[in-house]
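Bug #77: duplicate submission created two jobs. Keeping one. Sequence:
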Amino acid sequence: MLEISPNTKQYQEVTTNSENQECYNKLHTLVDSIGHYISQTSLKRVKGFGTVGLSENTIRTYRSLKRTILMFQEHLGYEILTNKVDKDLVEQLIQWLKWDMGYGDNYAGQIIKLLKIVLKDIEKSGKEIHPYIRYIESFKQKAADRIIHTLSFEEIRQIKELTNLSEELENSRKWFLIGLFCGQRVSDVLALKPKQIRINSYGLYIDYVQQKTEKPVTVGVVDRDVIQILTESFPRPVHAPVFNQDIKEICKLAGINQSLQGYVTNPKTNRRMKTIAPKYMFVSTHIMRRSFATNYYGKIETPILMHITGHTKESTFLNYIGTQQNKDAMADLFMQKLSQID
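Kept job's structure:
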């Protein structure tokens, strides 16, 4: 347990008389509690999967929560006790996240969501918490403020036709094309090994176990260029941050430079800001999975696409690609199936 500095507000509150000294010895700081939660992540139940043990990606979000609360404490000038997280403190935290730090609604909302999870876990352990935790609500970016970018088949063709690239960019271009045609998260794309590839009577298949959900998925690949890459010139490993920068340069060289509105990171403040810039500047690793889902939506049955991308709810899938259900497309598929039955 972390000690509370004698010159802090909390220490003064609980040590005004000798009776409060025992209370002081039982109090826990919020940062200490978050650290304890992180240390117990291997025992936490995974909601919706009936298993225990949080993924490394999820654990990283709690580490981010801990770092953020440490910075918030520096802003306040004192350590936060778990039983002092009330309405006023949460509102101060939201204001600091959004206005002082300039974080977007999605990140700020995630911090509030994780904070509530930790506090509820503390309550289950029998420790004292403020009753306000039951009313804490997370939030996210408004749908109207979301800007989604994808690469069309024509833009992918431009990337395919690039020549005379440096060795590094050519290697990243191969990974980029694989990602655009397999519909997986970048963590799964860049972890791909040749042993996951197999060929049967229908064509080339890739077997994945998605890192985030531990869900096994098999993806069929039909694009000839990607098949050739996978079978004849498999790319070398590349780190995600390097890859993320490389694909921007690749798109720039491919002429994907129409002016669009989007969000970029301000290098001085390290915060996202909305601006108008060439499209290649908005390209990131997320664009691979999202382009796959968008390009095949309405052409392939939605449940099949959801199985490949790993989405479990159609509403989440549609929100991911920024569209509403194409009722005509679904009706067309229904009519086509009926004609096959007749």
